[in-house]
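Why predict the complex rather than its parts? Because the way molecules touch one another can change local conformation, and only a joint prediction can capture that. The input here totals 253 residues.
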Amino acid sequence: MPEIVYTLSRVSYEYGPGAPALHGVDLTIAEGESVALLGANASGKTTLLRLLAGLASPTAGAITAFGAPLTPESLRDRVFAAAFRRRVGFVFQNADAQLFSPTVAAEIAFGPLQLGLDEAAVAARVRDTMALLGIEHLAERAPFHLSGGEKRKVAIGSVLSLGPDVLLFDEPTTGLDPRSRGWLVRFLRALREAGKTIVTATHDLDIVGRLADRAVVLGEDHRVWSDAPIGAVLADHGLLVGTNLAEPRGSEP
Ligand SMILES: Nc1ncnc2c1ncn2[C@@H]1O[C@H](COP(=O)(O)OP(=O)(O)OP(=O)(O)O)[C@@H](O)[C@H]1O
Ligand SMILES: [Mg+2]
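Output of the joint prediction:
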């Protein structure tokens, strides 16, 4: 039996009174699964990824990660927090919010340095990660001045260099040209083949069939409308229209 990575029980999140983002979410994610998190704008995808990443805690309900409660208290425990942060990587929707180092190489070295690896091990990780992503030529460039697609690769590199088991991707294909998008889909598939647990939030229905085994669909009411194999979700036009992921038939101009 694969290890259960996450269990969410009746998880709700509000940014404030009258600002709900998630409502009553029940979810289990097992090791090695690749899950697409689908939903229209404002349905709560980013919020759910932030909870899975331990960047926020539910306002109601409970989450366990790797069998242990994921709570503000457990995340204040330095040993637990360090182990959790090393196992879970989050690639943000907006790469600019993720990149802060003066060079690409420094950006990718940041995580391994935080882990306390020695200089040679850090250098090896940076080299391997840049080679995996094909960004060696960007090593000394300033992340801030890269193109959107290049920034996305660097943001992915800054997370992969930590060697996480779980990868959370927020709208990874947004703003990418067709070639970069194709590259990213193949890259995510390779991560899945390598046994990583992957949660990808997106409304890009064209790619999810190639990425994920399973889809969790959030409605505009911030509830889970469906949790099913990806093929079944993509074939359910009524569900896609109801959750505003597709337009009703005949509405195209
Ligand atoms: N920092 C915040 N403060 C207040 N409300 C917020 C905040 N972040 C998100 N929200 C609200 O929470 C709800 C869910 O937002 P979230 O960003 O999780 O949606 P999303 O599914 O990721 O949308 P998108 O597809 O546009 O990225 C929205 O109604 C949003 O306005
Ligand atoms: Mg979002």
